[in-house]
Each structure stands twice: as C-alpha cells, then as structure tokens.
C-alpha cells in the first residue's frame, strides 16, 4: 500500500487570488440578485399603474360613448323631422364610431394590463394552461 501527499510550498499568492476571486463572484451575484429584485418591483409597479390608467380611461370613454349615442339619436330625430341635414347625421355617426373605436382600443389595453400583472406575478403560464 502506498500513499502520496502533494502540497505546494510556495504558490505565489495563487490561493489568496482564488479566494478573492470567489468573494468577488459572490459579491457580483448578490448585486445581480438585488438588481433583479428591483427590476421585478419596478415592473410590478408599472403594471399596476398601467392597469389603473386603463381602467380610468375605460370609465371615461364609456361616458363619451353614451354621450355620442345620445347625440346620434338626437340628430337622427332632428333629421326625421327636417331640422337637420344628412351632413349632421354623418358627423354624429362619425363621432359615435370614433368613440366606439377608442373604447375598443381602451378595452384591449385594459385586458393587456391585466395580463401584464399576471405575467409580473409569474403566473402567466398557469393562467393560460387552466381549463375553462
């Protein structure tokens, strides 16, 4: 039976350099982790603010659509009794269609903001894989 023992008498500071390198990598990993935490918090706040903005926009545009519908109905009645011409009806219709288009865009932004919140929570895959 034979055993062999090898050790370096003089390493020229290699061991100390390796330890310092490991400590530096540990510090770099800790900084990367802290940075990622800040990114997640920022994305979460941004998603929540986008959600609130989209919700407020949707509420305001619902009132605008209601107003445009009432305007269109009033102009149609005026046209029916000869108090408005066809250009007034077309203007009222354009106003109504524009309001409906904007509320449709706002609704899609609202749903996208909800999906972004789900994404920032890390549940987006579970959300899409759920059986409905």
Indicate the topology.
Layout: H1 14-80, H2 86-121, H3 124-129
Short overview:
With 132 residues, the chain is an all-alpha fold. The chain has three helices and no strands. The protein is rod-shaped, with a radius of gyration of 32 Å.
Characterization of this structure:
By secondary structure, this protein is an all-alpha fold. 83% of the residues lie in helices and 0% in strands. It is built from three helices and no strands. The protein has helices at residues 14-80, 86-121, 124-129. Helix 1 (14-80) runs antiparallel to helix 2. The radius of gyration is 32 Å and the shape is rod-shaped. The model has no long low-confidence stretch (mean pLDDT 90).
Q: What's the overall geometry? A: rod-shaped
Cα-to-Cα separation, first versus last residue: 70 Å
User: In terms of per-residue confidence, which ranges show pLDDT below 50 for 5 or more consecutive residues?
Assistant: none
**SSE class:** mainly alpha
Strand content: under 5%
Mean pLDDT: 90
Query: Mind summarizing the main beta sheet?
Result: none
- What's the total helix number? 3
Radius of gyration: 32 Å
What's the total number of strands? 0
Order of helices and strands: HHH
Percent helix among the residues?
Answer: over 70%
